[in-house]
Design brief:
Elements lengths: L3 E9 L3 E4 L4 E4 L6 E8 L4 E3 L2 E3 L3 E7 L16 E6 L4 E4 L5 E9 L4 E8 L13 E7 L6 E3 L2
Antiparallel strand pairs: 1-4, 2-3, 4-7, 5-6, 7-8, 8-9, 10-11, 11-12, 12-13
């Protein structure tokens, strides 16, 4: 996605923002979590439709709660997607917490990210076969604007 880089990992347990001016570190999460994907502003100059693209936020796909109550935070729990500002302060959940993120796709024509997520219909904290998949949109120009498409 223009203006955004990604780091994928199974062994990331937190992320922090370090402000070199104030010499302060801010952890994104209060306790260890399991991070699937970190989307962060690209340092390279990107363009979209011949216009410069500059992002000033982070998005994190994460397993942050033992939703299935098996005693562990792992890939069997619900996967969430959060928006953080440029300083690492959590802004909002981009997909409701009773969903589990499955995948995403980028729409270059609209500069949108579409997120496919399964609804935890039976509320057991894990995804089961046959549970509905819905599509959520995120406006990457202003990711505070997001919603359910289908």
């Amino acid at each position: 996605m223009p203006g955004i880089e990604a780091v994928y990992g199974y062994n990331l347990v937190n992320i922090s923002h370090y402000d070199i001016v104030t010499n302060k570190q801010n952890n994104f999460f209060e306790r260890p979590v399991l991070i699937k994907t970190l989307y962060y502003p690209s340092l390279s100059k990107d363009t979209l439709n011949s216009e410069p693209v500059k992002r000033n936020y982070y998005m994190v796909s994460v397993y942050d709660e033992d939703t299935n109550k098996d005693g562990f935070i792992n890939v069997k729990d619900l996967r969430r997607l959060y928006l953080f500002d440029i300083y690492g302060v959590k802004q909002k959940a981009l997909v409701p917490v009773n969903y589990s993120v499955v995948k995403s796709e980028y729409d270059a024509a609209n500069d949108f990210m579409y997120v496919f997520a399964q609804l935890d219909l039976n509320k057991n904290g894990q995804i089961n076969a046959g549970e509905q998949t819905h599509i959520f949109w995120i406006n990457l120009k202003d990711p505070t604007k997001s919603g359910r498409e289908y």
